[in-house]
Amino acid sequence: MATTADVRYALASLADPGRAEGVSRFLQMVPGGYGEGDRAIGVSVPEQRRVAGRYWRDLSLDETATLLTSGVHEERLTAIFILVRKFTKGDQEERGRIFGLVLANTGSINNWDLVDSSAPYIVGPWLIDKDRSVLDRLVESSLVWDRRIAIMATFAFVKAGDFHWTFRLSDRLLRDPHDLVHKAVGWMLREVGNRDRAAEEEFLARRYRVMPRVMLRYAIEKFEPQRRREYLSGVV
């Protein structure tokens, strides 16, 4: 069986200090940034996916959980890639354990790339045919990552043609203080519009004037230029 140490060694062998500096800036691991306190070692995402592909079968769930609490960003993201693989291939019992593991460790899923690599592929799919009230709890959390997890989880519902929870949570996040939540809400509304433009516009009609600007821009990104101008100028 593989161990956490094996995965860490594999990632360390791919580390690039120059890339680490760029990642640290990009994910705001700088003083005052939303990723402050995190540490990057400079392993590209494709390389992390390859490492995950090599170890996901042989790394136990307990070992993966240990990796998920690492102080190194790439180790946590690789753990998420492993969990997604295990979730996709696992039986109902294992999928439930993985879902529980993710929700128990949202404090370690503490940047947008970590959220976006897990919530739509584990949290949302698990809740497709189950009670979704956990999303109501997450959306009220003081932790920005919990709130982003909640709205990003609805991507799985949107893909299934179910828009209710995207609209429900978007309504509750309209006045969220964080830019990363604004972007995620706008993105999910755009995904609704990609499938049902009329449904998205019906939602926007009574809300677009009070939305944070970046949320609105993301939501209408695929609209025709003239229609975007109408929304942005408030004359819809």
Task: Characterise the protein shown here.
The model has no long low-confidence stretch (mean pLDDT 97). This protein has 16 helices and no strands. It is globular and about 60 Å long. It is an all-alpha fold and 236 residues long. 66% of the residues lie in helices and 0% in strands. It folds into two domains: 1-110, Alpha Horseshoe (Leucine-rich Repeat Variant); 118-236, Alpha Horseshoe (Leucine-rich Repeat Variant), CATH 1.25.10. The chain has helices spanning 4-12, 17-26, 45-55, 61-68, 73-89, 92-104, 112-116, 119-127, 133-139, 144-153, 155-159, 164-172, 179-195, 197-205, 213-219, 225-233. The longest helix is centred in the middle third of the chain and has 17 residues, at 73-89.
Label this structure with key terms.
Leucine-rich Repeat Variant; 236 residues; mainly alpha; globular; 16 helices
Major sheet description: none
User: H/E element string?
Assistant: HHHHHHHHHHHHHHHH
Q: How many distinct folded domains? A: 2
- Large-scale geometry: globular
Query: What share of residues is helical?
Result: 55-70%
Give the integer mean of the pLDDT values.
97
Q: How many runs of DSSP E, i.e. beta strands?
A: 0
Q: CATH topology of the largest domain, which one?
A: Leucine-rich Repeat Variant
- Specify the structural class: mainly alpha
CATH class of the largest domain: Mainly Alpha
> What is the rounded Rg?
19 Å
Give the helix/strand layout.
Layout lengths: L3 H9 L4 H10 L18 H11 L5 H8 L4 H17 L2 H13 L7 H5 L2 H9 L5 H7 L4 H10 L1 H5 L4 H9 L6 H17 L1 H9 L7 H7 L5 H9 L3
